[in-house]
Every structure is written in C-alpha cells, then in structure tokens.
Design goal:
Length: 200
C-alpha cells in the first residue's frame, strides 16, 4: 500500500450517512403528514358543484346531489398518490370522532384512479367510515394543481374551505370548524318558494 492510498479517507461511512439522510428525507416527505393550516385561515366562499357524475365501488352511478344540504368533507385522491395515501388514516380518525356524529356531516373520498378496483383493493379490510366513490374527471369547482385536495362544503352549497396537499386532519380545530359549518342553515329550496298570485 502506498503512502497516498494510506492517507485516503474511508468513504464508506460518508456513503452510509448520505443514504441515511436520504432515507429520512423521503420518509418525512412521503409518509408523515404535515399538520396543515387552520381551516378557518383557509376560509373562502364560492359555489359548490353537485352535478358531478361518479360511480360507487360497485359501478353504480351516483352524484354529489345526494349530499346537497349537508356538510361535506370532500377529499379528492388516488391510490397512486403517496401523500393521498398517507393522510387517509387521519381522515378516518376524524370521521370517527364522537363529537361529529349526528351532525349531518358526510365524509366523501373521490378517487381519480383509472381502475376503481384498485380502490376496492386498497380499502379492503380497513373498515374506514368514509364513503368512497370513483370519478374520471373533476368539475372546475374542484380543479387544483395537484392531489390530495380537500374541500369543505356547507349545507348552503358553498365551498367554505379548501386545502391542497396532505395533512393530519384529526385535529381539534378541524372538528370545531366542521361543527360550526354544520350549524349553518341550508340554502332555501327554490321549488318551495311561494308562487305569486296571477294578476287579474
């Protein structure tokens, strides 16, 4: 062994260290949800879109119309999206909260997977309390630059909050925001508006 090679530093530990750091960067990026912003800080007020043709996981046609007049926690996701997958357990924990039971709040997760069977395979055995639906496109009201995307729909048919990106949804401030939203009145039914008498 020459003097030069003897003085050359051992790079093995440097490589191991870099691999370790890279592993934690990937883990924290793709598998640990961030806390996310306070929904009240993300408040907005724009019309929700209920005319969104979808299917349930048995292939039966459904629409968001069935949820009109309710508070809806609407999550747009896909099984091929790591951030979507990592936040799903926190959505399930939020949906199980006793304080939200009986409040007319629906948790709806709409998958954009090409094959709805992938969704069925993904949720099998998990016993999550959300409603899982499948869609091939997204109305303009819910278009975002990426997924997961989560929207809170009020009983009055308004999008009152929206967030793009994974989050830890099972938090007291989220529970409070959903409770307050559920207490707001629904939009009046136009079909029940009194008809003005015809002038004679």
């Amino acid at each position: 062994m020459t003097d030069a090679s003897a003085r050359r530093p051992d790079r093995t530990w440097l490589i191991i260290g870099l691999v370790f750091v890279a592993f934690w960067v990937v883990y924290l990026t793709f598998f640990v949800p961030g806390r996310g912003p306070n929904l009240a800080e993300m408040a907005m007020d724009r019309p929700a879109e209920y005319r969104w043709p979808m299917e349930d996981l048995q292939g039966q046609a459904v629409s968001l119309e069935r949820y009109r007049g309710k508070t809806v926690f609407l999550n747009v996701w896909a099984t091929w999206c790591p951030p979507c997958v990592r936040e799903m357990p926190s959505i399930a924990d939020l949906a199980r909260r006793e304080m939200l039971k009986g409040k007319n709040i629906e948790f709806v997760c709409v998958s954009l997977d090409r094959d709805r069977d992938k969704v069925s395979d993904f949720i099998r055995g998990k016993n999550w309390p959300m409603t899982f639906l499948h869609a091939t496109d997204v109305p303009m009201a819910y278009e975002t630059e990426g997924i997961p995307a989560t929207f809170i729909l009020s009983p009055a048919g308004r999008i009152v909050s929206a967030e793009v990106g994974a989050s830890d949804w099972d938090r007291p401030d989220i529970v409070e925001f959903l409770q307050k939203t559920a207490e707001t009145p629904p939009a009046p039914d136009p079909s029940r508006d009194p008809v003005a008498p015809a002038k004679s």
